[in-house]
Amino acid sequence: MNYFSEELDIEAGLKLSRLRIVLVGTSHPGNIGAAARAMKVMGLDQLHLVNPVRFPAMEATARAVGASDLLDGAEVHSELEQSIEGCSLVYGTTARNRQINWPILSPRDAALEIAQTETPVAIVFGREQAGLSNSELDLCQRSICIPTQSQFKSLNLSQAVQIMAYELRMAHLSSESQKQSSIGQEKDPLATASETQLLRTHLLAVMALVGYYDPSYPKLLERRIGRYLNSTNLRHSEVQIVRGFLAAIEQRLGSSAL
Amino acid sequence: MNYFSEELDIEAGLKLSRLRIVLVGTSHPGNIGAAARAMKVMGLDQLHLVNPVRFPAMEATARAVGASDLLDGAEVHSELEQSIEGCSLVYGTTARNRQINWPILSPRDAALEIAQTETPVAIVFGREQAGLSNSELDLCQRSICIPTQSQFKSLNLSQAVQIMAYELRMAHLSSESQKQSSIGQEKDPLATASETQLLRTHLLAVMALVGYYDPSYPKLLERRIGRYLNSTNLRHSEVQIVRGFLAAIEQRLGSSAL
To answer: Which of A20, A42, A141, A257 is within CB 3.0–4.6 Å of A169 for a Cys-Cys bond?
Structure first.
């Protein structure tokens, strides 16, 4: 699984530095420190603060642990507009039952969308108690809502940042590993319908050859295999691998199934 | 999107109360409180503590905010064995570079696997600095590793609990909405991560047995097969079909590949 790779070139490929976390009107400096740590652990490093109640502050530094460099580098603004300057996409986080008329995304869907882009993006988090105001949300093109249980929605600010930073990392790792594995995939087109059909015939013949059949439901097996092969986007090379394997089985058994 | 629904019957359908969060040897009571809040906001409510350094404690209650009921109901044990009693599956969380010889899952894969089960499950988190000991990990059947950046892995304990609780909620909401939208498919769930892993191992072993390898690129074949199996949503029944086929090949050849 690619996300356990420690290779620095993958880390570099993530380009998470174009992603900005903006905290608006944070009351507790401890939350700013915890948010910085939550960001850094997932590879984010651009922290923007809009009118923090108290910053810099000892509690922020204490909770940041090894992420105090993000606090040192944090940009402090008096207006939300300044903090999102230069961003091509701005996401506002919001509680679920707010009256709004634009699409609300889950953190996962938002992160997948963001991973498809390459320009600066801001994700804006509101005050601990009151969230973002309507006029602040008007500056965002999209809303993100983190699912919580309906009876207790009291998600801590730094925990919200942690979930979003985690989803951003997951989405970028997956997009990066797709990019790496699809190098040269242009030379490996999807299998044609007739290739898939020949594979199905060959597979069933070898299954019969080795005596693998559910004798009571032969048709069920055929149907399942047909359905599976059609539902997956087999590539030309993958069909070749499976057919090569089937041919090797036949050779070992000294008889041809077809 | 179903996870924004506030319907209580969906909430009830999640059955998250069978999921136990076990914190081992926690040093800072504040982290216990923050973990309780992280759990409750995602609908988890079974908190077990093994040898907490200090509990109950004011800092725990302060950080729990509205989740102090989880602290009141928390079971405190002197041995990890007691805390996981009655659990059919136990997951241990671990840093990525530990030497272990069983599968390491991402939080997402683990949550998807757990959402397929209906029995009590425990997820065990270690000490803030030292994690879980090897003998504690020996009591777990699976390991979970949260992906972090390679240069700064200092994930706060309650943040780790938050990510895991969030993934559990997402997986259960998605599984619940699948159940509601497709009656009959419950009999054929998606293959678990470990089923897919076992299939991969079995397949490669039989390929070696029949002498099917691209001798110049053995690793390439392994990688291609791993990628293919992970990219398709294999169902439990499909894994069984392929493994039955592989077993039939072995039987015909009169030798076992594994």
So the answer is: A42
